[in-house]
Amino acid sequence: MFRLNFGFIFLVALLVSFVIAKELPQESAEKDQLDLIAEDDNLNEVDEDSNENAASNEVEGGYVPDPCMKVRCGAGRICEVNDKGEGQCVCIPECPQETDDRRRVCSNHNETWSSDCEVYRMRCFCSEDSDECKTKKYKHVHVDYYGECREIPKCMEEEMEDFPRRMREWLFNIMKDLAQRAELDDKYLELELEAEKDLAKKWANAVIWKFCDLDSHPFDRSVSRHELFPIRAPLLAMEHCIAPFLDKCDADDDHRISLKEWGLCLGLKENEIEDKCAAIRDNE
User: Fold this and answer.
1) Is the pLDDT of residue 8 over 50?
2) Signal peptide span per the entry (predicted)?
């Protein structure tokens, strides 16, 4: 049975999951909720005042700020200055050429791409009905998991039964390692210290920490499939039970996982599940 290798998984999760999670755009209005870095109206907008201020500053003080300074573009897009001197989001003309196989990703169409940049660049072209769009199906293409596409084995019943324990252990070790490296967000340090001192709260605090960490775009006391991407995509190629496990956690099949569902799914008792996310954020 394949087991989580904490050292390797830690590096992947730390360098991919936690970094990506902090840089996520808001959730897309499109139906493909697993598309973490989907097109988002909020991410392809311009601060109108910035362009007006730019013109004003040019006249009054001779200083013109970068028109793209306040323009936020979604994945697959970059800001360029148009003929009017205003910043606007356009599809990335060319992605960096990748030679490292580790940069490859598998899309929701079970196709291997050289990088996530190429995936979202193509998505952008197709959403804009550009001639660069290879096929209309790419209008909703997104990264399914990191690494080359492969046949994902079926998660056996005995593996699924043992998975919550393994997942709790992994979460605690990740939280502990981040704290030791001084890389755990300050707002979660109290949870980690409490887990270290009180074995009764070891698993519960780790489970609650990860839920609070995932519930961020938006913070609404539930975790969407969109928000699960940072924990699903890096692990799927190495841990074939992660996808069916996360599906199982959504007990009422509403495409959102509540704290109660998350805790019970990971083997906590109902009296161990305490909503600490709001209090943690209030202390930021």
Assistant:
1) no
2) 1-21
Q: Which of left, alpha, beta for 221 (phi over 0: left; psi -120 to 50: alpha)? A: left
Angle at 263 between CA 147 and CA 187, to 5 degrees: 80
Could you give the percent of the chain with pLDDT greater than 70? 76
How many CB atoms neighbour CB 175 within 10 A?
Answer: 24
Specify the amino acid at residue 135.
T
- In 10 A of CB 118, how many CB atoms? 21
pLDDT tens-digit profile of 78-90?
Answer: 999 999 989 999 9
Number of H helices, E strands in the chain: 11, 9
Q: Which amino acid is at 176?
A: K
Q: Cβ distance 56 to 62 under 8 Å?
A: no
pLDDT of residue 282: 63
- Asked whether the beta carbons of 70 and 46 are under 8 A apart, the reply is yes
Q: What pTM does this model have?
A: 0.69
